[in-house]
Amino acid sequence: MEETALVQVGLSQLARRLEQVAQERDPLAEALQQELGRESREAYLKDWKTFARWLEATAGHPQTSVDLSSPAGVLQAMGAWLQLGDQTARALVQKWMADQTRQGLAAATIGRRLASLKFLARQAALKELADIRLHLLKAPRPEKRRDMRGPSGVAAMVDLVARAEAYGTSPAAKARNRAVALLLLTNALRRGEIGRLAMADWSPEQPLQLAIRGKGRKEKELVTITTATAAAMEAWMTLRPAWMPSAPWAPLFCALDRAAETRSTRELPVALEQAQTNLEAMAGPDGKPPAEGSPIWWEEMTLATTSVAFTGKAVYRLVAALGAAEGKTLSPHRLRHGAVTTLVADLRMPMEQAQALARHKSVATTCRYFDRAGELQAAATASLGSLLVGV
Fold first, then answer.
1. pTM for this structure?
2. Domain 154-320: which topology?
3. How do the domains of the chain map onto residue ranges?
4. pLDDT tens-digit map of 260-276
């Protein structure tokens, strides 16, 4: 009997401790970390901050005591909005959308901001924190789709690779730029996916395999690259600066500006130490931080190496500069459009194969990347018209 009583006491203490742990955690912060990738998380936080400031300035919602400069402060402000109840919270969002429309914001921008609030409301409902039915609100429809057409066709692709290589100011920069251009054109990688590549993601032993961390995905996925891309990667690796770390977490493509070496020796060690501190702060109830190699661990290491990496922003600047030299507007996203269009229109591949290249969840999304629909429609109309000659 005494042993049974001791077991019951122990279970009671454990239950109280587990209840305490449950109360200490922030469900919204956990959802933000677990459900979204870094880019989406930063974009949503930015949209929520904009909404919180609007609540304070326009709706008179008291946020003066909340520091919106930190993610915790933004989440606190959004938590206060969730507590207003369904009708009041939803009415405020409707007024916010109308106010943005009057300001002349694009429908796509308003729709993206509404999507961020819908995510928050959905997570709050799942965590049983609030029931705000934002799914009843519809985003405004854009009057026309943005023109994101990129260079398509074999000649345009070959020209772009040559211009990227020529844009380099040193042998290392030329090799890096060539490899980046080939990944953009033949694998349709996003700029963020290139910026997140680490030394562990490519190996000369398996040169045709590349591990990427895709948009909105926590785990890495393998993609196949061409022999030309693999050769460009190998050429870059032979010229990659010796002062850059070669550890598995180190960025595969790095900056080559004059101050990069200084940043690698002064700023990088401090950032890595801070990343370790951040990981330790994420320790669970067992006291253990996220394990090395876990998605959260990779994310922290990627953030720590931003100062020396050839980031997604750097990829964007490179592509934009190549376009500006020709008097054109060019971006990595436009190159994805061009890759899909070339595959379908010039190589006659099915749209499902283009979907596999772009790694879209829906083929409908891939169809929006095809830039020659007007040409196909004109050809189809001409073909049907030829049957009716003389009618």
1. 0.78
2. hpI Integrase; Chain A (1.10.443)
3. 23-136, 154-320
4. 999 999 999 999 999 99
